[in-house]
Every structure is written in C-alpha cells, then in structure tokens.
Design goal:
Shape of chain A: rod-shaped
Helix content of chain A: over 70%
Low-confidence stretches of chain B: none
Radius of gyration of chain B: 22 Å
Largest sheet of chain B: 2 strands, antiparallel
Number of domains of chain B: 1
Number of strands of chain B: 2
Number of helices of chain A: 2
Number of domains of chain A: 1
Distance between the termini of chain A: 175 Å
Order of helices and strands of chain B: HEEHHHHHHH
Helix content of chain B: over 70%
Oligomer: heterodimer
Number of helices of chain B: 8
Chain lengths: 156, 256
Amino acid sequence: MNINATLIGEAIWFAVFIWITMKYVWPPLAKAMSDRQKLIADGLAAGERGKHELELAGKRSADALRDAKAKAAEIIAAAEKRGAQMVEEAKLAAKVEADKVVVAAKAEIAQQVEQARAELRGRVADLAVAGAEQILKREVDAKAHAEMLAALRQEL
Amino acid sequence: MASGEPLTSSAYIVHHLTNLTVGQGFWALHLDSLIVSGLLGLVAFVGMAMLARNATPGVPGKMQTFVEMLVSFIDQQVKDTYHGKSPLVTPMAITIFVWVLLMNSMDLIPVDFVPMLLGLAGVPYFKIVPTTDPNLTFGMSLSVFVVMIVMGFKVKGFGGFMHEVFTVPFGAKMAPVNLLFRLIEDIAKPISLSLRLFGNMYAGEMVFILIALLGLWQLPLALPWALFHILIITLQAFVFMMLTIVYLSMASESHG
C-alpha cells in the first residue's frame, strides 16, 4: 500500500464526475421523470373525468328518451281523442243533413200527390162529361149541367 | 511480463500487482489507475449527460429508460435514508455507484489480457482495476469525509456541531470521552469505507491471478469465480454508495 499523489488525482476525478452528474445528468433526468409523472397523473385524471362524463351523458340520454316516450304517448292519446271527436261530429252532421233531405223529399212527394189528385179530378170530370155526351148522343147544355157537374166534381 | 526475468509464480503475481508509476516518493502518480478511472468516468458521465440533455418527459427510449431506472433506484435509496435538503447527495450517490461499478467491472477482463497487449506496446506494468489501488478508494472516501464534515457544519452551525461533538452520547460532564468517541467514530468512517472496497477488489483480483497460475485448470475455475465476482462488484459499489448516504444523513441530523 503506497499512498501517493494518485490520491489527489483520484479525488479530483471524483469531484469532476460529481460536478458533471450534479450539473448535467441528475437535474434534466429528474425533471424529465417528474414531468412524465405529472403527464401520467394528468392523463389518468382526464380518463377518470371522461368516464364520469360518459356516465352523466348516459343518464341524461336515458332521461331524454323517457321524456320523449312520455310525450309521444301523450300526443298519440290526444290525437286519438280528437279523431273520435271528429268522427262523432261528422256523424251528427250527416244525420242532420239526412233528416233535412228526408223532410224535403216527403214535402215534394206530398205536393206531387196533391197535384196528381187535382189532375185526376179534372180528368175524371172530363171523362164523365164525355161519357154522358156519348150516352145521350145529344147536345147537352153545358151551362145547364154545370151545376150538376160541379156537384159531381165535389163528390170525387 | 517484463522481459528477461525468469518466470516464477511470485514474479508473475508481483508483476500483476504493480502499478504503472511515474515520479518518486509522495509525488509519484499511478498512471494506470488515473487513466482507467478517468476514461471510465468520462465515458459514463459525459455519455449520461448527453443522454440527459436529450431526455424527454414523453415516451423514453431504451437507453433513457435504463439510465432513468438506475438513477431513480439510487434516488429512492437517498430519499429513504437522507432527509436533508442538500442537492449534492443524490448526484454524489449516482456518481459513486456508477463509477465504482464500472471500475470494479474491469476485474472481469482476463488478468493477462490488457497487461500483455500493452506489454507488446512497451508498457511494463498495467493494473487494469483502479479500485484495487488504495489511492483511489482513499481519494473517494476522504472526499466523502470532507463533504460529511462540511455538511455537519452547514446544517448544525459551528455551535451545534461542537455541542454534538462534546455532549453526545454521554452528556456534557463526560466531554473528553465524548470527544474521543467522536474522533474514533469519524476517523473510522473513511478508513472502513475505503479499505472495504479496496480489500474486496484486491482479494478478488488476487484470486483471479492465482487461478491464472493454474495453467489448464484455470478454465473451469475462472468462470465460476467471475460469476461470483459479479455479485461482489455490484455489492461493493452499492455498499460504498449506501454508506456514503448514511454518513451524510448522520451528518445532517442531530443525534440527540
């Protein structure tokens, strides 16, 4: 074991290497590592947040779906009700119209019957006169028989 | 192998355990230790610095992942043990672990490989494992010692430091005993730190050299010892780092 100036030389080397490590090796590596740690932590937090938001959105969409379904059912019910009402109204209107038509037809029929009756009366009178003319084969004083004819006409 | 000498076992061993030295007396320099440790350190730390400059907080590359794993493992050890605020401790721990690990790993290169190659180029001696040189281990442990003392003064202040030296563990009445205990404790730290690393690596290298002397039998023996030695290499690097952290945390926390 011979201790000599090599000891000083090695101490200088040691100091130089510590200096290099302290200045150029450790700080950038430590910074890179802590930065990466932060990056990963941020990423994980963002992932967690995204998951939470997805959950919320799922809940929201389920709510919206339920609301829409309820609203649709409501609309359908209203429409059905309105439809039934419209059918009912139409039925009523049709009935009124039909009654009107029936009444008009009846009135017309009665009028026609009356007219036909009047006509028939005239004809029968004529026929009777003609028949009497044929039977008597002589001139009949129309004026003299007018009273009798009028009475006959009344009888019919 | 130095040319012309008779090839005896002891000459072989001594040759392998001799440093490439320039100069005389205290001012002699072990060129092999200085060059190998310096090159390894420069490659490792300049490489890591270049990698760190391009480090991205996004998806890291394979190399960056590897270095980050190593560095954050060491940082975790520091965080578990050292609760002070000094920004020096983690870089120091990283430096110690990486550097010592690389220097210890030189032990896995076959013992004759580098000395023989350099011998052909006219270099008489070359000890490839810098951690088998006590100059290096003491250089490191004394640096740690200085940091430890400075940190103690900085954290506790001069008064607090002196108070601790004279009153722990037996109280103010036993001040001289406390001082003696403290001196022994603090002097033992750098010595045990450096001798532990040096002893382990020196002994490991010695076993490699002895195995290399066995001729053909070295083949089945060198491999298991190398495999086992991988454990020692890592363990010693880790222990040196861990004890440094512990000493620094002791220096920055009050004892009582």
